[in-house]
Write a structure and sequence with these properties.
This protein has 2 domains: 82 residues, no CATH class; 131 residues, 2,3-Dihydroxybiphenyl 1,2-Dioxygenase, domain 1, CATH 3.10.180. The chain is 38% helix and 22% strand. It contains 9 helices and 8 strands. The strands form 2 sheets. It has a 4-stranded mixed sheet, with helices on both faces. A hairpin with a 5-residue loop joins strand 7 and strand 8. The longest helix is centred in the N-terminal third of the chain and has 23 residues. It is globular and about 60 Å long.
Length: 237
């Protein structure tokens, strides 16, 4: 491994002088092997950090935003990660929720939608990354602990809102503590009731809503834990 490769691996100025001196004095293969092993361990640690995260920056790439367009991301850790093949895949450090499919909503007017979700659904905003022209490039909220991602629509990148599609083929399901109170608050804030509150044969009390931005939501509170056999017995004929 060359001096340039070692410095590229470590990617930090504080190693440069010591690496140059060590390379100039190297005569034995075991020392070279030791440095190569240290470099490999550094790469392993970096990859471990990356694997502990998930894909919000990857979504920025989908939007066509590269490192240099993000105001200096190409320097520092971003550059070293790219050189090592360990580009970070998250905007949220060490997420506390388990691996899951997280809904990612494309919205016409994402900033207004965040305000609505706070008022109607009691959402908590956990991060917001600005996009061009005052748009939302990426944001994360939680609704009773459930994570939801959202961003402004990006027609050029194929990121279409319900208005562009003429509706939405996907809906979001979230379990809440008290669906009755939840539904009352949401309807008062401006949500449209698609299916009113009702007890379901499968042991849940549910409501279906549409927000002013065209997305459809199903909220449920579990009343009974039933087996499939019990559900089939209760299912309306």
């Amino acid at each position: 491994m060359s001096s340039a490769a070692w410095k590229q691996c470590f990617g930090s100025r504080r190693f440069d002088i010591e690496l140059d001196r060590a390379v100039a004095e190297l005569d034995s293969s075991h020392v070279r092997h030791a440095i190569a092993r240290t470099c490999a361990e550094t790469q392993t640690r970096s990859r471990a950090v990356t694997e502990a995260t998930h894909g919000a920056v990857e979504d920025l790439h989908v939007l066509g935003l590269e490192g240099p367009q993000l105001g200096g991301f190409e320097t520092g850790f971003w550059r070293r990660s790219r050189l090592l093949g360990t580009i970070p895949l998250t905007m949220t450090k060490n997420p506390k929720y388990p691996a899951a499919a997280i809904p990612y909503l494309m919205i016409r007017g994402a900033a207004s939608a965040i305000d609505f979700y706070k008022k109607a659904f009691g959402a908590k905003e956990t991060m917001r990354f600005p996009g061009p022209g005052g748009t939302v490039g990426h944001a994360e909220i939680r609704i009773e602990g459930g994570p939801v991602y959202l961003a402004d629509e990006g027609p050029g990148a194929g990121l279409q809102s319900p208005q562009q599609l003429g509706g939405t083929p996907v809906s979001v399901c979230i379990y809440v503590k008290d669906v009755d109170e939840f539904a009352r608050r949401a309807e008062k804030a401006g949500a449209t009731v698609l299916r009113p509150l009702a007890d379901q044969f499968y042991g849940e009390r549910t409501v279906s809503l549409q927000d002013p931005f065209g997305h459809v939501w199903h909220f449920s509170t579990v009343k009974e834990k039933l087996t499939v056999e019990q559900m089939m017995q209760r299912m309306p004929q």
